[in-house]
Fold:
Amino acid sequence: MILELHERDAKVLEQILSILKNHPEIEKFEIDEEPMVSLPGLELFPSRRKVFRDRQEIQLTAKEYRILLLLATNKGRVLTYAQIYEQVWGDFTTGNENNTIGFHICNLRE
Structure:
């Protein structure tokens, strides 16, 4: 059985660990915590390129994912279209990137 717990489940985790201490016959595995970017209602797992909104996985294109990750990791900062384009596409801007980025951001808002 695999049990996923979050920070708000700390009390439950303490109770489970207390019970497990009294039962050495139960095999226990510890899994290293995976890096995650978290915003209210949104969780991004860069190592797996997965995004969850309210615990439901959402499907994104590669570009949408990279834009979302860039914006999430730069929360509170203003990024220009040129900065977004250069980071996501890995290329210098040509002046037409606003429509391209706007299209992907529009899809992310849905």
Summary: Residues 97-109 form the longest helix (13 residues). The chain has a mean pLDDT of 83. The chain is about 40% helix and 15% strand. Strands lie at 37-39, 42-45, 50-53, 56-58.
